[in-house]
Amino acid sequence: MATVFKPIRPKKLSEEIVDQIKELISRGDLGPGQRIPSERELATFLGVSRPSVREAIMVLEAMGFLESRQGGGTYVRSLADVAMADPLASMVERRDPRMLHALTEVRMGLETWSAYLAAKRAEQPEIDRLREIYTVMEEQAESGGWDPEIDFQFHLTITAATHNTIQVHVLNTIQTLFQTTIMVALGEFYSKEGYVELLLNHHRDILEAIEARDPERARAKMLVHLNLVEEKLAMFLNKERPDTI
């Protein structure tokens, strides 16, 4: 019987720091791309020495949870980065039609479910944030403009409102790809084609469904929006590279 027991080993301070930061990431309190406090700040917050903090950060970087960026700062790394970001990014940068279409399909599945969950789980501050972003969209639409970054923040807020950490991490990676390519391209396309008002209506419908706590309507309205994105993306790519569509 005694052989099933293992001696208890006291944890090093750095290991406790690692566990605490991993827990914050898993709960979504530290999100993908978010900068963590400096070594000095962390040491003060945690009441430990800077060498212990430094060792913990090195361990978390080796495990793939954190990354140091040129110019300073340590950031939370998306859980999907290692497996997805690099190969996808290179194909998206080349505007590979098959990859862009595939990403749109993935986005449809994930974001319609995000809208569904957000309608069930969103807390009032998240709904207030969506309303705030939508107000900015209204102001831009009045002048005929459409900012892909604001659009991105609207969808990202919906994803955060799911309170599903994996959903947030996965969609953050995919949304970043869309933000840098498809959203920019479609933003320009919609502006030229006079679709700004339609875009605004779509986002209003999604917001109102989430505010009404109507998951099915929220999912349906997100699907309507993303179907239009897919349609216009196909037209955009066909115009750019007619031999590949």
TrEMBL record:
Record has Electron transport as a keyword: no
InterPro entries per record: GntR_C (IPR011711), TF_FadR/GntR_C (IPR008920), Tscrpt_reg_HTH_GntR (IPR000524), WH-like_DNA-bd_sf (IPR036388), WH_DNA-bd_sf (IPR036390)
Cross-referenced SUPFAM superfamilies: GntR ligand-binding domain-like, Winged helix' DNA-binding domain
UniProt domain HTH gntR-type: residue ranges: 11-79
Keyword terms, alphabetized: DNA-binding, Transcription, Transcription regulation
Molecular function in Gene Ontology: DNA binding; DNA-binding transcription factor activity
Highest taxon above the source species: Bacteria
Keyword DNA-binding: yes
Protein's name according to its UniProt entry: FadR family transcriptional regulator
Organism of this sequence: Pelovirga terrestris
